[in-house]
Amino acid sequence: MCPRGITLRQDFLSHYGRQLGTLSGLLALVVALWILTPHFLTISNLLNVAEQATIIAIIAVGMTFVIITGGIDLAVGSVLAFSGVVMASSLQSGIPLPLALLIGLGVGLLCGVVNGLLITIGRLPPFIATLGMMSVARGAALMFTEGRPISGFSEGFRSIATGEILRIPAPVVIMIVVYVIAHFVLKRTKLGRYTYAIGGNEEAALLSGINVRLNKTLVYGIAGLLSGLAAILLTARLNSAQPIAGMSYELDAIAATVIGGTSLLGGEGTVSGTLIGALIMAVLRNGLNLLSVSSFFQQVVIGSVIILAVLIDMALKRRGK
Amino acid sequence: MKKGLVLVLLVILSVTFLSCQRGTEQAGGAPRIALVLKTANNPFFIDMQKGAEEAARKLGVNLIVQAAEREVDVEKQMQIIENLIQTKVAALCVTPSGSREIVPAIEKANRAGIPVVIVDTRVDAKAMSESNGKVASFIGSDNYEGGKLAGEFIAKKLGGKGKVAVLEGIPGHETGDSRLKGFREALKATPEIEIVASQTANWERDQGFNVFQNILQSHPDIQAVFACSDLMALGAVEAIAAAKKTGQITVIGFDASDEARKAVLAGTMDATVAQSPAEMGALAVENAYHLIKGEAVKAELVVPIKLITKENAAVK
Prior knowledge:
The complex is a heterodimer.
Chain A: H1 7-36, H2 43-68, H3 76-92, H4 97-120, H5 126-145, E1 150-151, H6 155-162, E2 164-165, E3 168-169, H7 170-188, H8 190-200, H9 202-207, H10 212-238, E4 240-241, H11 249-259, H12 271-290, H13 295-320
Antiparallel strand pairs in A: 1-4, 2-3
Helix pairs in contact in A: 1-12, 1-13, 2-7, 2-8, 2-10, 2-11, 2-12, 3-4, 3-5, 3-10, 4-5, 4-10, 6-10, 7-8, 8-10, 11-12, 11-13
Chain B: H1 2-25, E1 32-37, H2 43-59, E2 62-67, H3 74-86, E3 91-94, H4 103-111, E4 116-119, H5 125-129, E5 137-141, H6 143-157, E6 162-168, H7 174-187, E7 193-200, H8 205-218, E8 224-227, H9 230-242, E9 250-255, H10 258-266, E10 271-274, H11 277-292, E11 300-303, E12 306-308
Parallel strand pairs in B: 1-2, 1-3, 3-4, 4-5, 5-11, 6-7, 6-8, 8-9, 9-10
Antiparallel strand pairs in B: 10-12
């Protein structure tokens, strides 16, 4: 069932072409850094970059789903902090590791579903609903911890961030698994196709019998769940869950998604593009550090790249049509 | 489409080239020492950077200074340290954004054979002892002692009786927590001085303004405020001015930044506690230099602290 029929193939082609554009951007960046510093293109640094990209990359998957439906989720950073501290305190109160992880994921999922219900049943604009949740979850995290970080965990828990699978850092493996699953869901399942359909034309999706409310709620639930997953990785990485963690991560995730070619208007986008977007941001930050660029100038560069990427993306899109 | 791609390439190349030129200035045969600040937009850390740069020039080392955009961003700070490890710096000086969260980064540096000098904010002793990492040297000022000085000043100024408010830093920060502890300890000697409000303003000036304005609403009879940093104190000064109470409330800050010294001279602030960030930065680089040479360094260096009032506030 596809409410947009004929245009789908065209969209597919333009997706493919545009991702190639983003990918060449990433490659250009890699080549530039390779020339500029001997420290960039080493296996240890590339693994380093991949690991640094994981948190934003995982949040950005949820963001991609949400943005494809034509929505936005500003709460992901705060939800990350809240699920992180709840999971951390469960761990410290002696709850077994797997259960504590499920609690962390559950809190994230719950926050996301509440966002979804506010948007679908409450008919709030996504911007407002998630802006509210951003503040509620942040405040809840601060109340829950009385403002203090919760730290000091078992080796078992920390190995989620410090462990390696076939010499690849565990968080990178987890990120790859998330992306493979997300790609499959988006391209091969009803939920995925409905996600595009809702973003393309919500009215038409509704008329063609798609349960828009359910699917939208699920999508915000996914975004929350992935914030919970990112919280687990961040807490294990820093050996500490902070109530102020994840501030402005929503903006990094939106940037990665948009650099990756997902349209803020909804209806189009791919997770593979988002992965490239997240990698571009991470490579850029890494490279600027390696080159000892002043931290003020770094912000100028990162902002310029975001603007440039979207400008080029839009130019290509116009030409495609 | 091709045009677009060429454009991306060109811009990225030129941008990175621009940045590279700054980078290569610092390259060369001399040992490379990195200083990672909490942030580069707080006068305290700017002074520290100046002191460190001065020392680096004298010693003939290349100093790389990096900082996260936001003071509290522990994850960004960790990324910066990881990236510096990749460039194989000879030694790292860090002002930790989080007393505990810094520990994994120290472990990583040590594993790469890089000694770590900690400046300003002490690393949580328990978290450190549970890890495999080691702090080669700590350079800081005695924040507890500073808080005590502030408490004693307020006790004297109020004549041992009155209502006091406190603007705290970010909870869980060793620096702010120690200042607070010292302050409370000093006030124990004068039981008639009551801390009626103690709230965090997250080290920020605008929050210092808002939080103190709110406190004034609920406790209009407050006679003194102790802010754990000058930025928050200066925010409180504005809130006091907005409430038309300038001169009626004793304000004491911490850090003795230039602006706070001016405020003390102008009479809008009563005192501030002086640390010497420039000296801390210089000592950090010197210690790092000794470590690279394989020389022994002191495990802990305490930079003296003193109270700045109208008499000694003149900007150096």
